[in-house]
Write a structure and sequence with these properties.
This protein is of the alpha/beta class and 336 residues long. The chain is built from twelve helices and 15 strands. It has two domains: 100 residues, Enolase-like, domain 1 (2-Layer Sandwich), CATH 3.30.390; 221 residues, TIM Barrel. The protein starts with a strand and ends in a 6-residue tail after the last strand.
């Protein structure tokens, strides 16, 4: 067998709109694209690291460039063990894409999943002024689920305004932007707007405070920053209703499967989420989506120009590609 060869490059992704959450704002996303070559196969991977978790694109590139990978892409345990999560994510996805291409099978089939069981994804609306927010909601049109970022100080007014023009499902995400007392007060006021759940209302690291909020809220509580990987989940028992699984937080597909199975054993609901990313990373998560309750895999909706194609959507429902591996292909000639 030929040796595994890896190249990693940074990609700047302009966004359709400036994307603001409680702690940051961006008009261009930055991601790391991985190309893995082996036995005539070129496979793709991606990592969209967040400084929230002490990794960035430069550290991912430096870490993956330094690896000696050998000649067996099926040796996942050996190749991935010990890598930081964002580095592991990029390599893990490329290895799975390579294996799927080698076997000529899409990943969903390799995992024995039913592509008809994919959920509908939410469409995320970032923090903005009321009129700009309403313009974004009108642009979304008839999409059946919104996830609205909160924590900007006018949360009740934002949801009230959205509800005046939108009748679909609304989820909210405070991205650690509230105190426990604010969370209880805000959720009580938001309940009349028929909110499906609230994601990460308070700063991560205080499961008992999440329990305190949950006991006082009729709106279910879902973690994101508090659920990085499967090891975080036991501490959340009885404190929340569900978790958000993101491949870049947990180290890729293998880490996501560990989280999904652990959460199921604990009776927690599961959402698959994404960063600001290309179709490569979104597709990798989407192949696992028949296993979960909710999806927030809307990266392709938020970028102005994605050089890759793969996943498609019908009224928000995820349609998995049937090509081998990820089923993703490059649609533009250059990533620059």
């Amino acid at each position: 067998m030929s040796p595994i060869r890896l190249t990693v490059e940074a990609l700047d992704l302009p966004l359709k709109h400036t994307f603001t959450i409680a702690r940051s704002s961006a008009s261009v996303a930055r991601t790391a694209i991985v190309r893995l070559r082996w036995n005539g196969i070129e496979a793709l991977g991606e990592s969209a690291p967040s400084e929230r978790y002490n990794e960035d694109v430069a550290s991912v590139i430096a870490g993956l460039d330094a690896l000696e990978l050998g000649d067996d892409p099926y040796a996942l345990e050996r190749l991935l063990t010990g890598l930081p999560p964002a580095q592991a994510c990029g390599l893990d996805i490329a290895l799975h894409d390579c294996i799927g291409r080698d076997l000529d099978l899409p990943l969903w089939r390799l995992f024995g999943l039913d592509p008809a069981r994919t959920p509908r994804t939410s469409f995320t609306v970032g923090i903005a002024g009321t009129e700009e927010t309403l313009d974004k909601v009108r642009e979304v049109g008839t999409h059946p689920i919104l996830k609205v970022k909160l924590g900007g100080g006018n949360d009740l007014e934002t949801i009230e305004a959205i509800r005046s023009i939108y009748t679909g499902t609304i989820r909210v995400d405070a991205n650690e932007g509230w105190s426990p007392e604010q969370a209880v007060k805000n959720l009580a006021e938001l309940a009349k707007f028929d909110i499906e759940f609230c994601e990460q209302p308070i700063p991560a690291g205080s499961p008992e405070k999440l329990r305190w909020i949950r006991e006082r809220s009729t709106i279910p509580i879902v973690t994101d920053e508090d659920s990085k990987d499967a090891r975080d989940l036991p501490a959340l028992r009885g404190c929340v209703d569900g978790i958000n699984v993101k491949l870049v937080k947990c180290g890729g597909i293998r880490g996501a499967l560990a989280m999904i199975h652990t959460a199921r054993a604990m009776g927690l609901k599961i959402m698959l989420g994404c960063m600001l990313e290309t179709q490569i990373l979104t597709a990798a998560a989407a192949h696992l989506s028949p296993l979960v309750d909710w999806a927030d895999l809307d990266g392709p909706f938020l970028t102005a120009s994605d050089p890759f194609s793969g996943v498609s959507y019908v009224n928000g429902k995820i349609v998995l590609p049937d090509g081998p591996g990820l089923g993703v292909r490059q649609t533009s000639g250059s990533l620059s």
